[in-house]
Every structure is written in C-alpha cells, then in structure tokens.
Amino acid sequence: MRKKSVLPLPFFFLLIMLLASCSRKAGTARRTATLKDRARILESGVEWSDDVSVLEGRVATDFSVSPGLLQDPLAHIVTFDFSSFTGNYPVLEGFASLDTSGYSEASYSVIDGFCRALEAGRGEDSYMDKGFLFSLALFKYATGSQGQGKGMPVSHLIGKAAGDEGSLQCPVRLSYKDGSTCDIYVYLVKSVSDWKVNQIEFMKEGPEEGS
What pTM was estimated for this model as a whole? Predict the structure, then answer.
C-alpha cells in the first residue's frame, strides 16, 4: 500500500505566508505606477505662473515702481504722497467741524489766546481790535462773566474757520463749570500784520444748560 506524501503543517503555513507577501508587493508596485502616471497627467495640464524676476519686471513697467522697492512692502508707504490726503475730522452736532487746518499759525494763536484769556478773566481786551471793545463788554454782560453769573469759561473748542486771508469767522464752544456750553462766532480781521478780534456773536440764543 503506497503512502500519501503529506506536507508538514509548518511548511504549509510558511508557503501561504510567502504567497501573500508576493501578492502585496505586486499590488503596491501597481498602485505606485498608477499614481506616478496620474501625477504626470496632472502636471502636463497645469499652467505655471511666470518666474518672480519676470513679475518684478512687469510691475516696474506697468506701475513705474523701482524693482528694488518690491523687496520691501513698507517702502510703498514711504513713497505715498500724503500731501493730498485731507483726512477726516470729527464734527460736533449743532456746533462745527473740529478741522483747524484752515488757520494760519498766527491766526490760530490769536483765537486760542483770546479764549484762554476769557477763561483766565484777564487780558482778553488786548486781543480786541481798536474801537471794538464794546463787543467784548456786551458778550460778558450776556454770559454773566461779570458780577453774579456763570463765571468764567473753563475750557474751549475751536471749530473750522470760514473766510479769506483778511478776515475769519471762527466758531468757538465755551464750556462752563456747571456743565453748560456757549457757542459763539469770534470774528478775526487782519490789521497790517496782526490778527485782532473785532466782533463776538452768539451762534444761538445763548448758553445751553448741560446735563
């Protein structure tokens, strides 16, 4: 009776493992080849941008900017012409814009000095134009700055001026200790080389009571 050849069990498992390993390697090789093929196809359809040096040349040509400035974005801020930028100034409702750029150094010094003199309660007559002291007297009487009344203003705001080189209408808001305010126009006129106050006019009926 012929004996059947039986593969020992350990060798049987080893053979199965070898076959499985070869199958995995073959599958991995096929997937790798497929991914490479797809990458080549995608790359052939991509439109790549120009080189950086080419772009620098185009920007310099189209916008007249030195290629050296492209290395530093902050350089564009330095070359910006701020002289044409007016900016935005706050506007107080019921009063005026706080844009004081229309004053010359001399005219602003006079209007500011006059307001400070009103707050101090002395020296304001030195800012008045000759023959117009009565305007200051009437203003003090109306606001009670003399005798029993509101007293002296404690602070002021100067608004945007209107006028020309020889005369200015200057809005001023005076604030008092009790919280009330008084909006006035102070008119400046240029006498020879100096600016002088020649009229004070209320913008409204009189001082407004604060909250």
Answer: 0.56
